Prior knowledge:
Elements lengths: L62 H20 L13 H16 L5 H28 L6 H12 L2 H24 L1
Helix pairs in contact: 1-2, 1-3, 2-3, 2-5, 3-4, 3-5
Amino acid sequence: MTAPAPGADGPSPRPRTAQHYSVAPVLDTPDGYVAPGMPGVPVTGYDPVTPTAHRRAPRRRRTALALTLALLATLLGGLAYGCAPPRAADSLGWLAIAQAGLVALPLGLLGGRNRLLPPVGALLAAAALLLGQLTQQLRLVHTTGPGPRGLLPDALTSWRGDLRPLDLAFYAIALIGGFLLTRRTANRT
Length: 189
């Protein structure tokens, strides 16, 4: 049985079937365009938009600037930690992670994926914690009056006498946090 020709008895109630062409129909595509996955190469003169064209250019690495800003962050973090009220000194040890983040930010963002920067970030974070604790001891020795040896030797003796096992945990947090946060911020750029 055959379907009636269109227009003979009216439109057919059957759905339209696919039409077959011996030659492909002309679509609205640029000259020389070949669909993805089809064999062939685009003709010259056609410039397809590549997905990498919208990416931003890689940043230039400024390691010296990163180290300078990290040293400044170490000093500022240590001084901020050391200038806290003495009665809050017991709960301030947990701020070692904040000091590690403060040091890691310029190292990771400006320094990039340099292999030497995460260990430097770890050491600078621990140095910020040490500087903060020494500043606290200097303030304490200064208020009580320095001994015959002087302000700094008395502060160091006082710092060694006040070390607790929990302080070692804070130094470990500073070292690990400085390393990991520097590496993580470097991978984000």
